[in-house]
Design goal:
Distance between the termini: 15 Å
Shape: flat
CATH architecture of the largest domain: Orthogonal Bundle
Number of strands: 0
Oligomer: single chain
Structural class: mainly alpha
Number of domains: 3
CATH class of the largest domain: Mainly Alpha
Radius of gyration: 24 Å
Order of helices and strands: HHHHHHHHHHHH
């Protein structure tokens, strides 16, 4: 794991120490967690985007949306009753836009989720890539009659994201999208069966520690051969999944 040295005034260090103690964490863990939150955005910041209050649309936007509603009203089957509603609903939406009832504009965007940032999407892709390489490496290791412990294999298996956390739940949805698009097909059964990729406990911290180990300079130098990890590297990666306080 990489080390960063930062010089700060004594009073800032004392304030950080006090907050770490209040959170029942070591100073190192407290600072690490907050640095992680600065890169992988917190659920609270994600939930604030986008605003559901739409105060104005341009004439072109209103006309375009209204026409789309009128077209949809004409093509919906007579017994339509799904997320698109029925003909009456679509014509009502067109009328709201045509008459400029701004108080009801937000209905147009209720089904839209907040955005995953580029950093969050890249984090998901990096996690999937890491576990893909780990899976291939374990299979190659098995062919050479070398084995890891059950706990290590468990740690090196992708466990999804926590759907009780808004940001992790959104990341889990992105995983399903990527897998459905025929990328990382080895996760197909995992995300479409059973819990559908729900880890039921937060995983971002675990994955962040593993990625830090996976990316370190020495490991990159040692794994130039087709991306495969050695047994030692796999053991180190599995160890990184364990929180420092539990080692």
């Amino acid at each position: 794991m990489a080390t960063i040295t930062v010089r700060i005034p004594d009073e800032i260090r004392d304030a950080l120490q006090a907050k770490a103690e209040a959170a029942h964490q070591t100073l190192s863990d407290f600072v690490r967690d907050h640095l992680q939150d600065a890169v992988i955005e917190s659920p609270e910041r994600t939930e604030r985007r986008p605003s559901r209050r739409i105060e104005s649309l341009t004439l072109v936007e209103r006309q375009t949306l209204a026409l789309l509603h009128r077209i949809l009203a004409r093509v919906l089957p007579d017994d339509a009753n799904d997320e698109d509603g029925d003909e009456t609903y679509q014509l009502e939406r067109a009328s709201v836009l045509e008459q400029g009832f701004t108080g009801d504009y937000s209905t147009e965007f209720q089904v839209l989720s907040g955005e995953l940032s580029i950093a969050q999407c890249e984090f998901v892709v990096d996690v999937l890539s890491m576990f893909q390489i780990a899976k291939w490496s374990m299979e190659a290791l098995s062919e050479e009659n070398e084995q890891l412990t059950d706990d290590q294999v468990h740690a090196l298996t992708f466990h999804g994201f926590d759907f009780n956390d808004p940001t992790e739940g959104h990341m889990g949805a992105y995983v399903r999208h990527l897998v459905t698009e025929d990328r990382w097909a080895e996760q197909m059964d995992f995300v479409h069966k059973g819990d559908r990729g729900n880890s039921h406990l937060p995983m971002r911290g675990t994955y962040s520690r593993m990625l830090a180990e996976y990316r370190n300079r020495e490991q990159r130098r040692l794994t130039r051969r087709f991306g495969r990890l050695t047994k030692v590297e796999l053991e180190q990666l599995a160890a990184a999944a364990i929180h420092p306080d539990n080692r």
